[in-house]
Amino acid sequence: MNNLARVQTLWELFLAGGVLMWPIVAMSLVVLTFGIERLIALRRSRFVPRGFATGLLRLASEGPFDPRKVYRLCKEHPSAAADVVRAMLERLGRPLPEIEHVVEVTKERDASAMYANIRPISLAVTVTPLLGLLGTVQGMILAFYTTANLEAGANRAAELAQGIYVALITTFAGLCVAIPAAVIAHFLEGRILAGFRRVDGVVAGMLPQFEKYENRGRVTPAQLAADTPTAATP
Q1: Secondary structure of the chain in the HEC alphabet?
Q2: Closest Cα to residue 175, out of 142, 143, 135?
Q3: 59 Cβ contact list (under 8 Å, min separation 6)
Q4: pLDDT tens-digit profile of 117-170?
Q5: What's the whole-model pTM score?
């Protein structure tokens, strides 16, 4: 019975908050939906899959660096690390600064795609407190207007206190959405940064192999995909 009464009270508070409670609820659903989606999408395998990392170690232990085997490994384990390494391989033989540039471009492109669905959560962090404040200002205006037009002898202090109490509901609701949204957005951004640090570790381990091919002619994607060795293209 107490739980039922509590639910009814919350529902009554929601209704008392006015029409601006509905967009606040909508923003909470946005935070929940995109938060769950990003938690799934930004798992460890999205950056450096375990199979990709172990595959690189295995290839390194088998003998000399073979770009074709690494290229096939990248295709078998699609991920941020694989995208970066594949972009490096497609410029194999070019000057090292050019390879480092394509690494940064590829990382920025992948990071932008990962951040895309965090933006609605960040929007909720900004918008929901403003919606709450707008509802409170609206409620305060109505409260003061109602108090100013009370009949003589009415308890103005009680009426004003009741109006302010109702007006603050939207601010409370907005903060209840914005604070968890800020924590979720910060956590997801930290996961992306940590993931790309692991990608940087993979790139750092690969660069010495690319230095050996510098200025020896470019290897094309078709040559990398071939099953038999092909001479580099000047």
Answers
A1: CHHHHHHHHHHHHHHHCCCCHHHHHHHHHHHHHHHHHHHHHCCHHHCCCHHHHHHHHHHHHHCCCCHHHHHHHHHHCCCHHHHHHHHHHCCCCCCHHHHHHHHHHHHHHHHHHHHHCCHHHHHHHHHHHHHHHHHHHHHHHHHHHHHHCCCCCCCHHHHHHHHHHHHHHHHHHHHHHHHHHHHHHHHHHHHHHHHHHHHHHHHHHHHHHHHCCCCCCECCHHHHHCCCCCCCEC
A2: 135
A3: 65, 66, 69, 70, 73
A4: 999 999 999 999 999 998 888 888 877 777 777 676 666 676 677 777 777 888
A5: 0.80
